[in-house]
């Protein structure tokens, strides 16, 4: 059992994924990335190294998040020459995939890594004998193509569109230099059409089109490699060592020439840094990442599965969490070739397309807070902050009042998905939303504000407070203040309203009431000066106008309800009554009336432990150690059966790899170990005494809590800064 940070890191190496046979296809790939660029890496039975290239901002003209291409590297003699030895290892501490083959005593090695600081993928070849290398860029978008049938699901917002949905072909540059340059460029865009369709044409020209002329692609080159054809490089002479660089760029430029010039300049900057220096810095980044936080559970085979599942999901978050846009819940940037029923789809396909569902997008970001991965939360906040001007104008046009709201489901620039808004607008006001699942769904704005508050209370980032958190708060709180009337008693009357997606027509939904109470109380705790008195007055007034949480008592048991009144049958399978436990932690360990919440949990109508379902999180928050342990262990042991990588979960309700599935497990495990409430820190609120654990987690007030629990006892505990030790309560594991 690790007892120090270096011991924990050494133990984490047991979480490395190691394969001793090649893979048949991309379903046997390993993920790797630098936060913006991702690769899926595998070796085929003929010895070819193959990997997909992806990027967080590779949005097509119809708002699909596309791959940039696929690269195939062939050695001659083959990596598997003789077939005596093969090993492919994802090395977590180094942030790389190392592949070895041939003679086990003197193997040929292929190292793939995505520079943590620069937009480049490196493939390093090291062979005991001289070899030839051939590197080929494989492109499948070779002609303009209309998306139809089931494949249109991957362009979700344009399903049932009254016009053809077309993506244009990629381009391979024919310049006869020792390099391969290729790209996808959007000659058209759905942006202006979307604004007009949703009654937002006044914003045309005020908000730049984020899709038109967006160009993404790359340049592949390497010392000793010459042009074979427009898509292929080969070694001029055999050698023992080669390094192949694949430089990737997304940019909106007026011309292709400008994009190529930017790519060339970027590549020159990247390659001006000595390779050994760049790789050393890359490795330091990953070492710092793993030293920042860990949870290493041991003592049983079940615990080992949990440790690896937690580490691999956090690794996947890091591989895609520092890009231009938030992590896509439905596959992240690691989608591969797939099959739906009897149809085959390329790696650009994902169910639910390019839009962001907040209910699904949020879970990776909750897992980042106790892990201290705060920089990875920035893409989420940035996307919504950039969309705030559109949201304000939409609120004014649709409802005639101040404030702003974001729909539950949005494009990355902030509009509804057109299919949700509705194609047939005849006789409908512009504010009418056809999709009943999200028609009156506003509580996502309160959870976004809750995440922003948690970020600030943990980091103390005052620039974030003033530039991001307060603008979110002003817009969201003003929306609720102006949008809903008051009842005869002066309380807010949420009508028309809905309770998450599940109850489409209710009065006084619990998530909105709980969310407002939680966020308003949090806002009132902010360290604001007298110049913010007007804000505090509004927050205090609105807090006093909230109706009570919907609840009922039967047979002597009180439990929470999804809403005060439910006026229509459910259409989904969420448990909104438990949002008073998480994400709005009004009930929990060490708080009053926890039995009310436990009664509610026991009576929940929809039970499950997959995808976005939050049952293990609620169990942990309510101090139910055995139930939380069993669900977390089951969750981390349940991967997609068609994928080889142990942390490619799903598809569940979304797609592969399902980011909600792994991140809900992370959140639950974190809450089993530590829960916070203001300045209070509770350790082991739902921890099973049969699990040993070494951990390092982050708490509010720039606090780090590190400890070891072994053989039924807390062996070590370190709290930084030490002044926060007085705020820690150590509970007895169950």
Describe this structure as you would to a colleague.
The protein has a domain of 241 residues: putative glycoside hydrolase family protein from bacillus halodurans (Beta-galactosidase, Chain A, domain 5, Distorted Sandwich), CATH 2.70.98.50. It is built from 16 helices and 33 strands. The strands form 8 sheets. It has a 15-stranded antiparallel beta sheet that branches. Helix 7 packs parallel to helix 10, helix 9 runs parallel beside helix 11 and helix 15 packs antiparallel against helix 16. The longest helix is centred in the middle third of the chain and has 22 residues. 51% of the residues are buried.
- Terminal CA distance: 20 Å
Counting copies of identical and different chains, the oligomeric state is: single chain
CATH topology of the domain at 34-274: Beta-galactosidase, Chain A, domain 5
The percent range for helix content is 25-40%
Number of strands: 33
In short:
The protein has 734 residues and is α+β, with helices and mostly antiparallel strands.
Q: Which labels suit this protein?
A:
single chain, 734 residues, alpha+beta, Beta-galactosidase, Chain A, domain 5, 15-stranded antiparallel β-sheet, four-stranded antiparallel β-sheet, 16 helices, 30% helix, globular
